[in-house]
Design goal:
heterodimer; A: alpha/beta; six-stranded mixed sheet; four-stranded antiparallel sheet; 11 helices; globular; disordered C terminus; B: mainly alpha; elongated; disordered N terminus
């Protein structure tokens, strides 16, 4: 049986509740191999879904298969094909980078020698060779993350789960990690990642699912999601830059020309910008955190959500 | 070999090391897991210089204080005579047990750290028996505490402890104490597992550390007030310390030896059962 040809994830009727709190509600998802992002705000149930698919926690009802294997019945076999990189770096601060790597390799069933060889390769690739002998407690946040992901690759998994891989990283580390993840995907590793940022999902994933209130509220490519939210708008500004009017537009040249002609006749003094909804606006709208109309107060809205 | 212009062979791309295993990784077996985690925990112990130092210095301090400060005033034989040397041979098992309690409480902290930081979560998605993590901490705690025990005995000999116990009696004495060290280690491991944080884990265990004081370990039970005697006589520390002390001083312990072993076995079974029930349910969030 080749696991590379199996559907990555097949979920039907999956529900999970903690006591009376329903976290996931009757999910139906089928995904091919590739890179998939699960997008949603805090508390949407992203981590719960990842934990279920990576065999960490049981679910209340339904069925879930990963790489064609039942996450419950074929647990051990599945565990030999996947790896989980959780929200908090699961590396041991008292051990060195290389010791962490070799330990993980041995636990996956590699011989000490093979584990050592793979560790050297991966540490070099993740530019951690110089720090390999240092205790992980001395690493920066970005280095810990990189080591965390390197360790999850030690046994050549077919699928890796990345739970909010760049949360808490600075822009440079985030960019570097994105590059690594894309390299990994290009080499044929399937990736299931969660994120709170549509931008991140856009950069990394072929397909994005938006999880909100325990269900998938939207899915598709970033472009498709943007289209779903609504088209571009023409904004009219006064001299001080304040928006005085917002008009919907199809966004194509013909429609713009027509509308601009009308505006220039009525109010030749206003300045005009055409804008598309930002990724943040798309995200907030899809997750029902704000009213559908595109408004310039997005920033303060976003603050509320992220708190 | 024919001479042909050799093109440089295209280098294997350095980045292409995503060699997917065609078959699932088998995962480590129980023994490999146990070795890997015992080595890991021992590295933890020996790299944490401060707690290692504490594990050695604390029992020495305890012993010197009890021998020289209290020893001169204690009449443990009831014959009216008091001497430091006499008290030393009386109090030695209690000091070993007390020191081991402090040493074992460290296990609660390290187990709790593993449980709450996400480290354990990753391990649980891997194809090996993850309970070996707990067992590794137990092995390392045993090694650390038996080392501390050896230090205590060495210092005891240095300050004048002498015995005419046979090798078998000494082995029996140390063996019983070692069994109790195992008990408190696994109990602390379970506490570390159920506690929400490392701090509360060591807090819960604090009571255990007081058990030796309310036993025959430091003073005869008969010298305590009546209301305390009942507890002191029948708690597990008293038979264990009595039996260990008897063997240590070349006497033959009676029933206490078996009662002590029963207590230890009971505690270990209880702790293992709790671990087996609770461990699979504990997932850090």
């Amino acid at each position: 049986m080749t696991y590379t040809n199996m559907p990555l994830v097949e979920i039907s009727g999956l529900s999970k509740s903690y006591g009376k709190h329903q976290v996931l509600n009757d999910l139906h998802i089928t995904l091919p191999q590739g890179v998939h992002a699960l997008l949603g705000p805090n508390g949407a149930g992203k981590t719960t879904l990842v934990n279920i698919l990576s065999t960490l926690i049981p679910f209340s009802s339904g069925e879930a298969r990963v790489l064609g294997l039942d996450v419950h019945r074929d647990r051990k076999k599945l565990q030999g094909l996947i790896s989980l990189t959780g929200q908090y770096a699961a590396v041991d601060g008292a051990l060195s980078g290389i010791e962490n790597m070799v330990m993980m390799g041995q636990l996956f069933g590699l011989s000490r020698r093979d584990a050592k060889r793979r560790s050297d390769e991966l540490l070099e690739r993740f530019e951690l060779s110089k720090a390999a002998a240092k205790r992980v407690a001395t690493y920066s946040g970005g280095m810990r993350r990189k080591l965390d992901i390197a360790a999850s690759l030690i046994a050549g998994p077919q699928l890796i789960f990345l739970d909010e891989p760049t949360t808490g990283l600075d822009t440079r580390s985030r960019q570097a990690l994105w590059d690594e993840i894309n390299t990994l995907a290009a080499a044929g590793t399937s990736i299931f990642l969660t994120t709170q940022y549509l931008e991140e999902a856009d950069v990394l994933a072929e397909r994005i699912m938006v999880l909100h209130g325990g269900g998938i509220v939207a899915e598709g490519t970033a472009v498709q999601l943007k289209q779903r939210v609504g088209g571009s708008t023409i904004q009219l500004h006064d001299d001080a830059g304040h928006i005085i009017e917002t008009l919907p537009t199809q966004g194509d040249a013909a429609d713009l020309a027509q509308q601009l002609a009308a505006i220039s006749q009525q109010r030749p003094e206003v300045s005009v910008t055409v804008r598309k909804p930002t990724l943040d606006e798309v995200f907030l709208e899809l997750t029902g955190a704000r009213s559908p109309s595109v408004s310039p107060t997005t920033k303060s809205d976003k603050k509320e959500v992220s708190q | 070999m024919t001479k042909t212009a050799t093109r440089p062979t295209s280098r294997v791309p350095a980045r292409n090391i995503e060699t997917h295993s065609a078959e699932p990784m088998s995962g480590a077996n129980f023994v490999t897991g146990l070795i890997v985690f015992s080595v890991r925990s021992l590295k933890h112990s020996f790299r944490d210089a401060e707690s290692l130092l504490m594990a050695v210095i604390l029992p020495i301090m305890l012993m010197l204080i009890f021998t020289y400060v209290m020893g001169g005033a204690m009449d443990v034989t009831g014959d009216g005579a008091t001497s430091s040397a006499q008290y030393l041979s009386y109090v030695l098992p209690a000091i070993v047990v007390t020191a081991a309690g402090f040493g074992a409480s460290y296990t609660a902290v390290v187990v709790s750290n593993d449980m709450t930081t996400g480290f354990m979560n990753r391990l649980r998605t891997m194809p090996f028996p993850s309970v070996t993590v707990l067992l590794g901490h137990t092995v390392s705690s045993m090694v650390r505490n038996l080392m501390a025990t050896a230090v205590v005995f060495a210092v005891a000999l240095a300050v004048g402890f002498r015995t005419d116990a046979s090798a078998a009696q000494l082995a029996g004495s140390v063996g019983l104490v070692a069994l109790w060290i195992l008990v408190i280690t696994v109990v602390f491991a379970v506490l570390g597992m159920v506690a929400g944080s490392a701090e509360s884990a060591s807090g819960y265990g604090f009571m255990l550390l007081f058990l030796p004081y309310v036993s025959s370990g430091f003073a005869p039970v008969e010298s305590m007030p009546n209301w305390l005697q009942g507890f002191a006589q029948h708690q597990p520390m008293t038979p264990i310390i009595d039996a260990s002390r008897a063997s240590l001083n070349g006497e033959t312990p009676g029933n206490e030896w078996w009662i002590g072993i029963l207590w230890c076995t009971g505690f270990v079974v209880l702790a293992v059962w709790m671990a087996a029930v609770l461990f699979p349910k504990k997932v850090a969030r």
